[in-house]
Amino acid sequence: KQELGDDKIEVLQVGPAGEKGVRFAAIINMSTRANGRTGMGAVMGSKNLKAVVVRGKARPTAADKARLNQIAKWGADNLSKSDIAGLSKYGTAETIGANQSTGTLPTYNYNRGVFDKWEAIDGTTMYDTVLKGAAEGKQDREGHDTCYACTVHCKRVVEISDGKYKVDPHYGGPEYETLATFGSYCGVDDLAAICKANQICNMYGIDTISCGATIA
Ligand code: SF4
């Protein structure tokens, strides 16, 4: 984006993992979104394809623009009262507790389905401690991110400036799957360590699910 002087450019790329043929290399866009499964990053790397860069200029058309806008407004107005209000506030990390309660939280290489320390890695703890702006109570504005035009804003932005594991908000924050595989799956209850593992995977272009499960 800097090189071409256009911040509306979008980049789909592989990192060192794809270049070196790691079998669970991901394709990353926005530095935070991983097309993670099946090793597509290794496929791109094997073809010496480092990145695909696009710049859209045409506006999407809708068959009934007025009705579409009406529905979009209804969604935004009713989000806080809907079943997905928790997804908006706590992200997919909210489902750590749900999986714990049903015995389906992968734990100790899935030898168990419950993790005694689950509350240390769940969405509420993330919201209260590691989301960007949490220390000042500004995480609803600074600690969320969204995909294009989505009102849910379920993506996490983690910032940790102190301690053993510092985390750069540029690389977003872990989803449920990453919290589970690097957390309960490995018997790890250190949320900062999991967030750091998420950052490193996004930097190198690695699928967090396969990486955490392989370590477990
Ligand atoms: S479109 Fe993106 S921000 Fe919206 S709910 Fe889906 S993953 Fe979350």
TrEMBL record:
Family: Belongs to the AOR/FOR family.
Protein name: Aldehyde ferredoxin oxidoreductase N-terminal domain-containing protein
Gene Ontology terms for molecular function: 4 iron, 4 sulfur cluster binding; electron transfer activity; metal ion binding; oxidoreductase activity, acting on the aldehyde or oxo group of donors, iron-sulfur protein as acceptor
Domain spans labelled Aldehyde ferredoxin oxidoreductase C-terminal: 72-216
Keyword annotations from UniProtKB, A to Z: 4Fe-4S, Iron, Iron-sulfur, Metal-binding
Aldehyde ferredoxin oxidoreductase N-terminal domain mapped to chain residues: 3-56
SUPFAM superfamilies: Aldehyde ferredoxin oxidoreductase, C-terminal domains (SSF48310), Aldehyde ferredoxin oxidoreductase, N-terminal domain (SSF56228)
Required cofactor names: [4Fe-4S] cluster
Keyword Kinase on entry: no
Source organism phylogeny: unclassified sequences, metagenomes, ecological metagenomes
Gene3D superfamilies hit by this protein: Aldehyde Ferredoxin Oxidoreductase Protein, subunit A, domain 2, Aldehyde ferredoxin oxidoreductase, N-terminal domain
PANTHER family membership: ALDEHYDE FERREDOXIN OXIDOREDUCTASE (PTHR30038), TUNGSTEN-CONTAINING ALDEHYDE FERREDOXIN OXIDOREDUCTASE (PTHR30038:SF0)
Species, as recorded: marine sediment metagenome
